[in-house]
User: Fold this.
Amino acid sequence: MITNQIIQTSISELAAITKVDFCVMDLKGNAVAETYSDHNISRSTIVNFVNSEADSQVIQNQHLLKIYDDEMPSYILIVSDTEDSYKIGKVAVSQLQNLIIAYKDKVDRNSFFQNLLLDNLLLIDIYNRAKKLRISAEQKRAVFVVETKNEKDIDAREMVKELFSSQNGDYITAVDEKHIILIKALNYGEDYSDLEETAKMLVDMLNSEAMTTVRVAYGTIIDEIKDISKSYKEAKLALDVGSIFYAEKVIIAYNTLGIGRLIYQLPVNLCQIFIKEIFGEKVPVELDDETLATVNKFFETSLNVSETSRQLYIHRNTLVYRIEKLQKATGLDIRVFDDALTLKIALMVVNYMKYVESMEY
Assistant:
């Protein structure tokens, strides 16, 4: 339901413009908002008016008008005695009724999208409710999930709401206190490069203006409203997979997860068998930080020894020594593509196993 503060703001603005005073009462005769209180209209009079079939009534030279919501009286408006009080009162009623409808649409849309994201709606209900709420069913969209460092990050939520407007087909909602969900409508010709730019804008804005650390993930582009939950699940999966395998990234796209998505879906017992078959009892988690940093940089430079040594600011021979030391420890020579690939996958599997273990406690 519309808040009393919104009603108060509305009638205060109307009073300032028209020089006419108003009082809005609930159906029991209690004042909800007012710009004057000396109307002398009793509660019993209000109740009697509510129960009558009349839409308006004049009492003590003041106009009483019903404010409707879905064809049922919702509030009573009292207009002070002036020459044009009835006409002005009708304008006020129209404005307040439109506010009630707009507020209900906002609440209903939020509820609709929340249930849509969580797969709580039947297919026929999705299209029926979308039509009722004037939401386009056939529209290219993608879902972004913004993970904030702090729960109930009000500043971040408000900034995202200001940046993306429902008038453009964008909707902001949430299903928990730590994530902001943006359902982004795409214009003709927009593709994944535009989604990446939107994600960068969100990160830059929230980091600099809201002074909060965020991670942003997004799902694939969908064509119909029924598939919004699919894009949302992909974005959530991207956040989880990214936190395990790509912790250094603040933007994660579902369609770029690569082998990390495959490993994430493997049973833990298969991961354990894989690691044991390759390394026996000595798994990569036991490698020291220096060796792991060397390996990661070696992968980043596409197994280029000269470029890796340059970026690590070490002599080429020092790098070769570290690689040979790793070979003795693991049996894998990462200068050979197959061995490098095996070690890369193994490190990701170990990270996944550590993640699963941490979730069990």
